[in-house]
Design brief:
The protein is an alpha/beta fold. It contains 8 helices and 10 strands. The structure holds 2-amino-2-deoxy-6-O-phosphono-alpha-D-glucopyranose (GLP).
Amino acid sequence: MQVIIFDDAQHVATHAAEWVAELLNKNPKPVLGLATGSTPISLYQQLVNKHQAGQLSFKNTTSFNLDEYLGIDASNAQSYRHFMNENLFDHVDIDISKTFLPTCAQGENPRTQGLKYEQQIKQAGGVDLQILGIGANGHIGFNEPTSSLASRTRIKTLTQQTLNDNSRLFDKNEFQPTLAMTMGIATILDARYVLLMATGESKAKAVKDMVAGPLSAICPASALQMHENAIVLLDKAAASQLEEQEYYQWAHDQNIMINQEFGLYHNY
Ligand code: GLP
C-alpha cells in the first residue's frame, strides 16, 4: 500500500486526476472504476477541465461504478447515475452506453443483476483503475463492516451510520434508500490499480484502521492491504491518526523519481 499525504483536498484531487489522465492517454481501451460521494467531486471537476482544455478524451473509455441505490431510478436526482451524469459524463466525450452502474430495477432479481455486472466487467477486460472513497466506518463502495472479503456484486443493507452520514444529502421528507447494489470486496480487489481518496478529519479513524489496522471485515477497506497496487491519497486531516507519516513522505519522494523515469503504471 502506497500512502501519499498532501496539504489539502485539492492536491489529492490533482494527483488522482494525473493517474486517470495517464491511464486514458496510455491505454487504448481503458476501463475505469468510478465512485460517488463528495470526495471525488473535485477529481471529476479536474477531469472535465482537462477534457475541455483538449488534454483528455474519454472516447474509448468504459466505466463501471461501484454502487447504486435500490428503489430509485436513474431519473431521480439522488441516484448515482444522476450524480455521474451531472459531475462527469455530461461534460466529457464518453460513450454513455459504455458507462455501467450496478442497477436493480423493481421486479429484477438482485442476484441475477449482481452476476450480470460481474460478467460485464469481465467482458470489458477487467477494471484498470478503480477510484475509491471511504466511509467513516471503513466501508468501500457499500461494503459495510463485516462484509465478506470474498464478496462479489450484490445487494447490501446499509448500516445506520452510513444512513446517518448520507442523510445530509437528502431532504427531510425525501425517500432515503436503505438498500443498495455494490461491487463486492473481491470485485474491487480484481482491479489492476486502486486509488483511494480520503479527506477530512471524519475519515481519520477509518484511514488508520485501513492502513495500519489488522486485515479485518470490520474495516472493509483494510482488504486493500492485500492488493498489489493500492494507492491511498490523503489530506493532512485524514492522515492525522497515522504514525508512519515521515516514512510515507520519504517513500513518496523516492517514487517521484522512479515515476519520472518509468511512469505511474507498469502493466497494461
Ligand atoms: C458513500 C459511497 C462510497 C463513498 C462513501 C464516502 O456512501 N457508497 O462509495 O466512498 O460513502 O462518501 P463521501 O466521499 O461523501 O464522504
